[in-house]
Design brief:
- Residues 163-192 are annotated as: Disordered.
- The protein has 192 residues and is α+β, with helices and mostly antiparallel strands.
- The protein has a single domain, classed as Electron Transport, Fmn-binding Protein, Chain A (Pnp Oxidase, Chain A, Roll), CATH 2.30.110.10.
- Helices cover 20% and strands 30% of the residues.
- It has 5 helices and 8 strands; from the N terminus they run βαββββαββαβαα.
- It has helices at 10-18, 64-71, 104-109, 149-155, 159-167; strands at 3-5, 22-26, 35-39, 45-49, 52-58, 74-80, 88-98, 119-133.
- Strands 1, 2, 3, 4, 5, 6, 7 and 8 form an 8-stranded antiparallel sheet that branches.
- Strand 2 (22-26) and strand 3 form a beta hairpin.
- The longest helix is centred in the first third of the chain and has 9 residues, at 10-18.
- It is globular and about 50 Å long.
- The N and C termini lie far apart (36 Å).
- 24% of the residues are buried.
- Mean pLDDT is 89; it is low at 186-192.
């Protein structure tokens, strides 16, 4: 039932574009907590080429993904169809964080839809394994619409608040790994 693919071809891209959400999984190298995050807003994920994808990382309640990527780069993205056509697609690879103050950010930003307030970074993933599975036990759900709450919340926040969060609650993971803290540059050996 499971199949591995050599690249993100047209049908796989169409499947990805049809999904209203995706999941991101990362973990620290030793000990610590595994992180699994649901991500919404369909226009925040982009296939850049047959082996590269990216998503807009919006400010949220934690910063585990960024911390784990800074430490070891490992990441898995999962798409799951909740329609009549059951399917799970996983993208395994190495991720890197591109902050808004990085010169590459503006070019990457052109791959996404509307402007979302509260963009913290773009996460770029070099995909080294693409595999699907049946999803036969995944329940049926109907997509009602995008939940506008996060965008509405971010739109009310002043830029200074986002700046404070970089060194504050977005400075480190819950396990104490550095994330957006400007006093801790990216370690050498991790893809930038």
């Amino acid at each position: 039932m499971a199949k591995e693919f050599s690249q993100l071809d047209g049908p796989l891209r169409q499947f990805i574009e049809a999904q209203a959400m995706f999941f991101v999984a990362t973990a620290p190298s030793e000990g610590g907590r595994v992180n699994l995050s649901p991500k919404g807003y369909q226009d925040t994920f982009a296939v850049l080429d047959g082996h590269t994808v990216a998503y807009l990382d919006l400010f949220g309640s934690g910063v585990e993904t960024i911390s784990h990527l800074r430490e070891n780069g490992r990441i898995t993205i999962m798409f799951c169809s909740f329609t009549r056509n059951s399917r799970i697609l996983r993208l395994f690879g190495s991720g890197r964080v591109v902050r808004p103050d990085d010169p590459e950010f503006q070019d990457l930003r052109t791959h996404f839809g509307v402007e979302h307030p509260g963009v913290r970074a773009v996460v770029v993933i070099e995909v080294d394994r693409i595999a699907d599975s049946c999803g036969y036990a995944v329940p049926y759900y109907e997509f009602v619409g995008e939940r506008p709450v996060l965008d509405a919340h971010h739109a009310r926040q002043p830029d200074e608040k986002f700046a404070r969060r970089i060194g504050g609650d977005n400075g480190h993971s819950i396990d104490g790994l550095p994330a957006l803290d400007p006093d801790h540059p990216l370690p050498s050996g991790i893809p930038r």
